[in-house]
Write a structure and sequence with these properties.
By secondary structure, the protein is an alpha/beta fold. It is built from 16 helices and 13 strands. The structure holds nicotinamide-adenine-dinucleotide. The site of nicotinamide-adenine-dinucleotide has 36 residues, from helix 1, strand 4, helix 12 and helix 15.
């Protein structure tokens, strides 16, 4: 086992950080438009902990609150350079116009920078995303050759932009649901699968393989498994690369993981939770295919159990009926609307109902998540952290967790984990929120 580098030992964020995104669509073009605008002083990066958040250090009596960006040696937004791949040739400018997340005037303000992000031809397979038919794709005899083409793209990007460090963040469509197969059992089996064109190897896994082979961190913003299988855990450990995923936590699931911890904390029962959505963007179109929807459904369904723990509280949550629907409805575009009906019960089993109607903007919620994940993953790499970055669970609907451990889905536990990891990295005292030492001499009692 190697050590985590802390404080001044963390490698500095020198030079440029290259960010390569498979998928130049609604989320990535919204991130880029916002970030480019922010760099010109035209927009605020609201929702980003790294840009606008503060962290408390020490005791409450010390009143020390510092900006996260000043506390940690993070890469500055000005040092990020972007590239990517897509199965359509649209630049980030065209993608932003088509996605219609943002007003034209906001896109036009940074048009030149958006136009400079031209996707490279993608590794794409319709068996994994049935509802798209892009032609801007790579062709090769084997999946291994495709991986090598991606590695060359990455190397060319590094040279062209003179980057110091790189990372890959999947912002492409949700792939069809597939469980890990024999070819995912080890690196050796996976490499044999690449050679033999195993149909069980998805495009996202070819990107992730290229990244990890080159010791580049990989972030999975979609719900499909990609690196969540033994072969990739082995490769990440072998090459000492950070990985994280799955599925950016936004919209309805964000609300769910805000509300459910509250009900569970107060010991209220839940008999039913019905969630339905309408959305009309390309993501919605892809999810209209039952196989892609299955990936999303599994990612969304899993969040409640680890928060409310029906295994520990069968009387309160043992009979919970949890249902999720996603409906593709083009007129809405990216402006998703979700409805939740929650049937809860309290004292003497008296039933109550809660209705939540969230008119959200998916990509507006996703963009700051992507930015924070980029900056924190880069920090993890410079701190020598590798494998699954559980402290980044805060940002995911279906967080990856070490084998044998359940993932943490409670947003507030996730936030504590994240904040304490940051304190640990900078050699600050971890905060446990007891406040007992104000009243009692814990040292004298031998409790410190
Ligand atoms: N918007 C959100 O709040 C949110 C939240 C959680 C997860 N996500 C996930 O993020 C991803 C992106 O969402 P979006 O709204 O930007 O979708 P989008 O459809 O607007 O963009 C995805 C892009 O990926 C491209 N693509 C598909 N397969 C590809 C491949 N193999 N290689 C390269 N490009 C490929 C598509 O052509 C498209 O341009 C989706 O997987 C979505 O499920 C989004």
């Amino acid at each position: 086992m190697s050590e985590i580098l802390r404080g001044k030992d963390i490698a500095p964020a020198r030079g440029k950080l290259g960010v390569l995104m498979p998928g130049i669509g609604a989320v990535s073009s919204t991130l880029l438009t916002g970030l480019f605008s922010h760099r010109r002083g035209l927009a605020r990066p609201i929702g980003s902990l790294t840009q606008m958040g503060k962290i408390r250090l020490g005791k409450r009596t010390e009143k020390r609150f510092v900006d996260v960006k000043d506390f940690l040696p993070l890469a500055a937004p000005a040092d990020l350079v972007f590239g990517g791949w897509d199965c359509f040739p649209d630049t980030a400018y065209e993608a932003a116009r088509k996605a219609k997340v943002l007003k034209p005037e906001h896109i036009e303000a940074v048009r030149d920078e958006l136009e400079a992000v031209r996707p490279m031809p993608a590794v794409f397979d319709r068996n994994y995303v049935r509802n798209l038919d892009g032609q801007h794709v790579k062709k090769a005899a084997t999946k291994r050759a495709l991986a090598e083409m991606l590695m060359k793209d990455i190397e060319d990007f590094r040279t062209a932009h003179k980057t110091d460090r790189l990372l890959l963040c999947w912002t492409a469509s949700t792939e069809a649901y597939r469980e890990a197969q024999a070819c995912h059992a080890s690196v050796k089996a996976f490499e044999a699968g690449l050679e033999k064109n195993s149909p069980a190897i998805s495009p996202s896994q070819i990107y992730a393989y290229a990244a990890l082979k080159m010791k580049i961190p990989y972030i999975n913003g979609a719900p499909h498994i990609t690196t969540d299988c033994p072969a990739f855990l082995e490769l990440a450990a072998e090459n000492k690369v950070p990985i994280c995923g799955k599925d950016f936590k936004t919209g309805q699931t964000l609300m769910k993981t805000i509300l459910a911890p509250g009900f569970a904390a107060r010991g209220l029962g839940i008999s039913g939770w019905f969630s339905t959505n309408i959305l009309g963007n390309r993501d919605g179109e892809v999810l209209d295919d039952p196989e892609s929807f299955r990936s999303k459904e599994i990612s969304k369904l899993g969040v409640l159990d680890t928060i409310i723990r029906p295994d520990l509280y069968p009387e309160l949550y043992g009979d919970l009926y949890h249902k999720i629907r996603i409906n593709y409805y083009p007129p809405r575009g990216d402006n998703k609307e979700s409805w939740d009906n929650i049937d809860i019960f309290g004292w003497m089993d008296y039933p109550m109902q809660i209705k939540v109607n969230f008119l959200c903007r998916d990509s507006i919620l996703a963009a700051p998540v992507v930015l924070d994940l980029i900056l924190f993953s880069d920090l993890a790499a410079r701190a020598g952290m590798y494998g699954i970055q559980e402290w980044l669970s805060f940002y995911f609907k279906s967080p990856m967790a070490r084998e044998g451990l359940y993932p943490e889905n409670d947003l507030f536990v996730q936030r504590d984990k994240l904040m304490n990891t940051l304190r640990y990295l900078m050699r600050e005292e971890l905060i446990h929120h007891t406040g007992l030492d104000y009243y009692y001499d814990l040292e004298k009692n031998g409790q410190k």
